[in-house]
Amino acid sequence: MKIKKVMVIGAGQMGSGIAQVHAMAGIDVVLHDVSEEAVERGFKTILRNLSRQVEKERITTVDKAIIVNRIERSVDLQKAKDVDMVIEAAVENIEVKSSLFAKLDTIAPASAVLATNTSSLPITEIAAATTRPEQVIGMHFMNPVPVMKLVEIIRGLATSDEVYETVEALARKLSKTPVEVNDFPGFVTNRILMPMINEAIFTVYEGVATPEAVDEVMKLGMNHPMGPLTLADFIGLDTCLYIMETLHKGFGDDKYRPCPLLRKYVKAGWLGKKTGRGFYQY
Ligand code: CAA
Ligand code: NAD
Prior knowledge:
By secondary structure, the chain is of the alpha/beta class. Helices cover 48% and strands 14% of the residues. The chain has helices at 13-24, 36-55, 61-69, 94-107, 123-127, 161-173, 189-205, 211-222, 228-235, 237-251, 260-268; strands spanning 5-9, 28-32, 71-74, 85-88, 113-116, 136-141, 150-155, 177-181. The protein has an eight-stranded mixed beta sheet, with helices on both faces. Strand 1 (5-9), helix 1 (13-24) and strand 2 form a beta-alpha-beta unit. It is globular. The N and C termini lie far apart (43 Å). Acetoacetyl-coenzyme A (CAA) is lined by residues 49, 52, 56, 119, 142-144, 146-148, 189-190, 193, 225-226, 231, 235. Acetoacetyl-coenzyme A binds next to helix 2, helix 7 and helix 9.
């Protein structure tokens, strides 16, 4: 299957990055969100990133204009009617994703691939909201999308080989490295990463160390590019909490219990970098 036009649902930090890398690879993109304000915010992030590429002389101003021209902005889901593929990157909530997939199923062409960038939710369950589970797949990009090489690809129970191969080829076209994993809560990335972040939050909660000290230990002691609490702020504390809840519910094991401090911050609206406050202030 040839992917020439993609709709990206959700223009947040992941959706804007996903739209950018597709446009840079020569693919037409519809960048969609629930409000014009959200779409504009995502679009401005792309413009900023592309301007930096121009400054670094990796692309010319003409290239930038061509890339930007490939991106159409939308608050109308009906724009899915003439795309080859949808990549959903809305909030990490099964009801929101299932409802979106049920709607997309009635709008997108029968041949279209419906992919989700979910960090942890079951692909099989999202696929069950549609009448075409064989065309539903997990395409999990890493943050920041323009920089990170990995795309985790997750088949649902019914995903066809053709759809898998299409998404794998697309990931390579975006200069990413695809890795196939099975449909279990958190897949591989967040099964391993998020309990570490949650444990880092427990060390602060229990008074073992300050956030600065925890991050310094992990950066200098383990050579991580960012400490776990800086990374949590960067990912979004809401997303971290939703992922821990999926692991906790999915495996039924108390070792995945979200730290109460994480819940408290999310309740306070301290969602990390995107709201200006999390474990640190921005
Ligand atoms: N968007 C686009 N580009 C960005 C960026 C962003 N948000 N942040 C940094 N960059 C680019 C910079 O422009 C720079 O590019 P150039 O070399 O071309 O100028 C490059 O990345 C390196 O940036 P910096 O020199 O400013 O900073 P750095 O060396 O500390 O790298 C980083 C920044 C790549 C983000 C690095 O800190 C890092 O790798 N952090 C960990 C990221 C990580 O673990 N991501 C996975 C999160 S988990 C996930 O995504 C899955 C999930 O489901 C939650
Ligand atoms: P974000 O909060 O930055 O952006 C989410 C966007 O989705 C917002 O702009 C919001 O308005 C929009 N949205 C919410 N409901 C919508 C709907 N019904 N229709 C259209 N748009 C809707 O979140 P994010 O960090 O970009 O995460 C998005 C998805 O990507 C989540 O599923 C998350 O788990 C996953 N993910 C996140 C990361 C990360 O590091 N943040 C990494 C990989 C995957």
